[in-house]
Amino acid sequence: MSEQAITYAHYEESFWNEFTPGEDDPTKGAEQIINWAYKSYGDSLVYACSFGAESMVLIDLIARVKPDASLVFLDTGLHFQETYDLIDEVKNKYPSLQITMKQPELTVEEQAEKHGSALWKRNPDQCCYLRKVKPLEEVLSGAVAWISGLRREQSLSRAKTQFVNKDERFQSVKICPLIYWTWDDVWDYIKKHNLPYNALHDQNFPSIGCIPCTSPVTNSDDERAGRWSSFNKTECGLHTTTTP
Ligand code: SF4
């Protein structure tokens, strides 16, 4: 059986999308799905980690199940220093985790030479494709499944996310353990377990990505309002099916 067939067989056989966590389950199904995912996919499972608030929860849950799990950070070269500082903290706290900093083919300077400076201002979809989507395609070319921290309440486009998703963009299975978590759940867990988190969260940055495309948020209930706030764009392309 080819790797592709194994991927979709797992998806078709999955019973998780009929599963509703009990009210007494403190992780709202996350711990169970993570356990199942590592038993099913083992070393073929990759966590694409953004090091946002949800990531801190997932890292902690994953490290309990598989202390040497593989994490990939899409290092666009345009992240805040606070994000790199947090990655160092995580490496110290969870020394067995395998954290890969995946860089795009072109440095920021090379991209400017080839496509013009500040591509994110003129064509953010192309910029995200070059610096995030394509690198993740390369990472997932050897993986059967990946984990993402999507939550249903984050946006309308994420409201129907399942625990186990057929990911046609990356020809893979996307596992989302936190679909039932609220923003408060995430922070309750971080505080309860004394987890590290990005210092920018305390400066009105609920969602943190690249410097040019992330702004502080004031007077908004939408925690993703600070992402691409000057552009007609809400997603980097990792969770959509179209290619720019
Ligand atoms: Fe480029 Fe902005 Fe996407 Fe980062 S978030 S890859 S700077 S468009």
UniProtKB/TrEMBL annotation:
The gene is cysH. The active site is at C236 (nucleophile). [4Fe-4S] cluster binds at C127, C128, C210, C213. Pathway: Sulfur metabolism; hydrogen sulfide biosynthesis; sulfite from sulfate. GO terms for biological process: cysteine biosynthetic process; hydrogen sulfide biosynthetic process; sulfate assimilation, phosphoadenylyl sulfate reduction by phosphoadenylyl-sulfate reductase (thioredoxin). One of its GO terms (molecular function) is metal ion binding. InterPro entries: APS_reductase, PAPS/APS_Rdtase, PAPS_reduct_dom, Rossmann-like_a/b/a_fold. HAMAP family: CysH. This is Adenosine 5'-phosphosulfate reductase. It is found in: Cytoplasm. Catalyzes the formation of sulfite from adenosine 5'-phosphosulfate (APS) using thioredoxin as an electron donor. Its cofactor is [4Fe-4S] cluster. The lineage of its organism: Bacteria, Bacillati, Bacillota, Bacilli, Bacillales. Belongs to the PAPS reductase family. CysH subfamily. Its EC number is 1.8.4.10. Binds 1 [4Fe-4S] cluster per subunit. Keywords: Cytoplasm, Iron, Iron-sulfur, Metal-binding, Oxidoreductase. GO terms for cellular component: cytoplasm. Residues 45-216 form the Phosphoadenosine phosphosulphate reductase domain. It is an enzyme of class 1 (oxidoreductase). Transmembrane segments: none annotated. It catalyses: [thioredoxin]-disulfide + sulfite + AMP + 2 H(+) = adenosine 5'-phosphosulfate + [thioredoxin]-dithiol. It comes from Gracilibacillus dipsosauri. SUPFAM superfamilies: Adenine nucleotide alpha hydrolases-like. The keyword Amino-acid biosynthesis does not apply.
